[in-house]
Automatic annotation (TrEMBL):
Organism of this sequence: Clostridium neuense
Protein name, UniProt field: Glucose-1-phosphate adenylyltransferase subunit GlgD
Domain Nucleotidyl transferase: 20-149
Domain of life from the UniProt record: Bacteria
UniProt keyword annotations, A-Z: Glycogen biosynthesis, Nucleotidyltransferase, Transferase
Uppermost EC category: transferase
Designated gene of the protein: glgD
Pfam hit, one: NTP_transferase
EC number: 2.7.7.27
Start and end residues of each Glucose-1-phosphate adenylyltransferase/Bifunctional protein GlmU-like C-terminal hexapeptide domain: 286-354
CDD domains in alphabetical order: ADP_Glucose_PP (cd02508), LbH_G1P_AT_C (cd04651)
An MF annotation (GO) of this entry: glucose-1-phosphate adenylyltransferase activity
Family, as annotated: Belongs to the bacterial/plant glucose-1-phosphate adenylyltransferase family.
Length: 370
């Protein structure tokens, strides 16, 4: 167990290609897999590895995130010593600097008792054992360890993500970008392991010079001046940085093998518990290959879809290859295909919405389709 490790989650992920779902929430708070949020994966991975001190840096548009996290009880982080700490940068609506955020909260780092730190974003969906990565870091004697994933579909996936150039000893020689010209790539998972003292030195250098806006930028630009190693993660990985990747990640979870790996392989994935009644399936309803959360009422036809809590699908409605978030209502004889519907949306009787698997239709929060 990683008792001597703390973690800092920097939620300054780029969300320009997923704005339809992030206008009123940070990317980390987007619902996924029916009853979870994107941040649940990295949070659960950390606590399953024994980390009990987690600081979260987020911008001012974080009401839904704070409501979801609460005191951290679902992740056993509601503690008198250590626990969950949320630092909200009020007034910032887009990309913010984690350097600026930490500069204003250095006391949190100094007062933390742990001597090592794991820095991560939230938009890399996986189930990873951080304990193995930390042991690799300690045994390698490196200054920083970057967790990465070898992929063979770089021409179509993980575009514009950072790529590690490694030698035969897994030492990082340089950092580039995936511009889609090669399939085989070493994709950075934006997860870094280092001593807390080194993090403090990095922050002081950034504050002093003003040359870098984020911790990851400093690390990537100074890889030649430090001993930086790469740790290979070999499990399932999905980067949620666009509407298409979000849709694909949800559809992947309908695959039983991927579902078992994501939610059970290195410990469970935890989320906020709502204590709702089971979903009710009426006579004449039909459900096939779908994930359906608690509290819903299903009278119609649902196949290959993700249905969140408290969704009502009336008789005669047909839902195919869709993601429907909580508190939505699909009226009689409506037909939905390849559609992502945000929370609190009403689709009226007989309406038909159809997207493409490559370009699903997105219905924004609190919309009314009559």
């Amino acid at each position: 167990m990683l008792n001597d490790y703390m973690s800092i989650l920097t939620l300054n992920e780029e969300d320009g290609s997923i704005k339809g779902l992030t206008k009123k929430r940070p990317l980390a708070a987007i619902p996924i897999a029916g009853r979870y949020r994107i941040i649940d994966f990295v949070l659960s991975n950390l606590v399953n590895s024994g980390i009990r001190n987690v600081g979260i840096l987020t911008d001012g548009n974080s009401r839904s995130l704070v409501d979801h996290l609460g005191s951290g009880k679902p992740w056993d982080l509601d503690r008198k010593i250590n626990g969950l700490f949320v630092f909200s940068f009020s007034g910032v609506n887009s990309f913010f600097s984690d350097i600026e955020m930490l500069k204003n909260n250095m006391e949190y780092i100094y007062r933390s008792r742990q001597s090592k730190v794991i820095i991560s974003s939230s938009f890399m969906i996986c189930n990873i054992d951080y304990e193995q990565a930390a042991r690799f870091h300690e045994e390698s004697g490196s200054d920083i360890t970057i967790i990465y994933k070898k992929i063979n579909d770089g021409k179509t996936h993980f575009l514009n993500r950072n790529v590690l150039n490694l030698n035969e000893n897994s030492e990082v020689l340089g950092i580039g970008k995936n511009i889609g010209t090669e399939n085989n790539q070493n994709i950075s998972m934006e997860m870094f392991i280092m001593d807390k003292s080194l993090l403090i030195n990095i922050l002081n250098s950034c504050i002093k010079t003003g040359f870098w806006s984020t911790i990851s930028e400093w690390i990537y630009r100074n890889c030649n001046n430090l001993n930086i190693n790469g740790y290979e993660f070999k499990g399932y990985l999905k980067c949620i940085d666009s509407i298409q990747s979000y849709y694909e990640a949800n559809m992947d979870m309908l695959n039983l093998d991927i579902n078992k790996e994501l939610f059970f392989s290195n410990g469970l994935i935890y989320t906020k518990v709502m204590d709702e009644a089971p979903t009710k399936y009426f006579n004449g309803s039909y459900v096939c290959n779908s994930l359906i959360a608690n509290g819903s009422l299903i009278q119609g036809f649902v196949t290959n879809s993700i249905i969140s809590r408290r969704v009502v699908i009336h008789k005669g409605a047909k839902v195919r290859n869709c993601i429907i978030m909580q508190n939505c209502e699909i009226k009689e004889n409506a037909k939905l295909t390849n559609v992502i519907i945000d929370k609190n949306v009403l689709i009226d009787e007989g309406k038909e919405l159809k997207g493409d698997r490559e370009y699903p239709v997105v219905i924004e929060k609190r919309s009314l389709y009559q």
